[in-house]
Amino acid sequence: MTKPSSQGLQCIIEEGAVIGENVHLGHRVIIHQNTVIHDNVTVGDGSVLGREPSKAKTSTLQTGTLDPLVIGSGSQIGAYAILYAGSTIGPDAFIADGAQVRERCHLGKNVVIGHNSTVENDTKVGDYTKLQTAVYLTAKSVVEDHVFLAPMVTTTNDPYIARTEARHQATRGPHIHRGARIAGGAVLLPGVDIGQEAVVAAGAVVTKDVPPYQLVMGIPARVVRPTPPEQLLFPSEAPTKEAP
């Protein structure tokens, strides 16, 4: 076990934790055994790092043996965040106050997880992706690079809504391709595919796949027009109109 450069009152660092240089802990931080924290990381008051998952007696969640939590260099962890064992947080991540990242997740570099947002188990979040306040990213989701999820976006992964045994084989979160943007309060149904640079309007309910470079809105969401060209991150990859 190594010691942080500074720590607040009543911190608990369990045996086997590996802490790099220039790591600063707030008050009452708990670091569970074998957690790895790389250099230049700051952890806010009351955060819990490397927690093992627990579950209700009726839960079907499979936990198993988990690798240690790894936090990349230069990351900032806010107050009262909970990061579970088995996950990897890339360098220069920002995990805001009260956020939660469950087990077996992989977050890329420069990822932002907003205040009170949750990233459920077995989810991948790409580089430079941002989740704003109170986003719910369901288990078994894939979110690629440069994606933006506005406040209160909700994703789902169970097409049977917790009824019938068939749901165990059908559980799948959305796949959100790079550069896509989801506006505030939108809901994505299980397994939908959001294409590259697509835009989902505020309050939309997405029930089927969204084509790349298209804007959808409504309940259910429908294509209304292409993504504005001046907003594109990857304009050279946008489809071109065929000549009449």
TrEMBL record:
<dbReference type="InterPro" id="IPR050179">
    <property type="entry name" value="Trans_hexapeptide_repeat"/>
</dbReference>
<dbReference type="Pfam" id="PF00132">
    <property type="entry name" value="Hexapep"/>
</dbReference>
<keyword id="KW-0677">Repeat</keyword>
<dbReference type="InterPro" id="IPR001451">
    <property type="entry name" value="Hexapep"/>
</dbReference>
<keyword id="KW-0808">Transferase</keyword>
<protein>
    <submittedName>
        <fullName>UDP-3-O-(3-hydroxymyristoyl)glucosamine N-acyltransferase</fullName>
    </submittedName>
</protein>
<dbReference type="InterPro" id="IPR011004">
    <property type="entry name" value="Trimer_LpxA-like_sf"/>
</dbReference>
<dbReference type="InterPro" id="IPR018357">
    <property type="entry name" value="Hexapep_transf_CS"/>
</dbReference>
<dbReference type="GO" id="GO:0016746">
    <property type="term" value="F:acyltransferase activity"/>
</dbReference>
<dbReference type="GO" id="GO:0009085">
    <property type="term" value="P:lysine biosynthetic process"/>
</dbReference>
<keyword id="KW-0012">Acyltransferase</keyword>
<dbReference type="GO" id="GO:0019877">
    <property type="term" value="P:diaminopimelate biosynthetic process"/>
</dbReference>
